[in-house]
Structure formats: C-alpha cells, structure tokens
Write a structure and sequence with these properties.
111 residues, alpha+beta, hypothetical protein tt1805, five-stranded mixed sheet, 2 helices, 5 strands, 25% helix
C-alpha cells in the first residue's frame, strides 16, 4: 500500500532540507493520490522535469512504490512551465514540487 501524495511530498521536502537543498510545493494537488511532478533546478540554468512513469511500466502487479521518469532535461523554465500547464489542464489535482540544489539532485529513492 502506497502512502498518500501529501505524506510522500512532505517526506521528500524533509529529505531535501536535511541534505542542504531547498524544496517547496509550487502547486498542491489531491492529498490522497495526486500525481507528483518535480522540477529540479541546479541554480546554473539547467532545469529538469520529472513526472510519474506511465502505468504500463508498473507491470501486472501494480506499483508498490512511486515510479518516475525524466520528462524534460536541461530545459528552459518556460518549457517546463508550459508542460506543467498542459498536465494541469488534464489533471488539476497534480502536485508540483520545485527543488533547488547546486548538484541537481532529485532526492528520489533509488530503485
């Protein structure tokens, strides 16, 4: 059983803070099961957008943990904003978290 989106985001933000990065919620989605998108900013102009992996990647047993994939890499902020706007038009319940880290870490659990 997966934890709620709200709990997962809170834990991610805490992990970022403990390792010296800054993270904040840009858009708060559905507390229970909203999809989570991460914007990783390395503070040197390189931005990465990470989003949920397609459900086809989970297999027949379903996900035990959240899975992610890189949607945009080394992208301009405007490109990421446009992609997020499109995602929100399909699903207004998404979460958007921005992480600012000089090393460009996403702080996602290793698979």
């Amino acid at each position: 059983m997966r934890v709620t989106s709200e709990f997962w985001v809170s834990a991610l933000i805490r992990r970022c803070q403990l390792d010296g990065a800054f993270a904040t919620v840009i858009h708060k989605g559905a507390a229970e099961a909203g999809a989570i998108f991460l914007i990783v900013n390395n503070l040197q102009g390189a931005n990465t957008l990470i989003g949920p992996a397609p459900q086809a990647d989970y297999g027949s047993t379903g996900p035990q943990e959240r899975q992610f994939e890189c949607l945009l890499s080394d992208a301009a902020s405007s490109d990421i904003d446009q992609k997020i706007a499109r995602e929100r038009s399909f699903d207004p319940d998404i979460w958007v978290v921005e992480i600012e880290d000089k090393q460009g870490r996403s702080f996602l659990p290793e698979s």
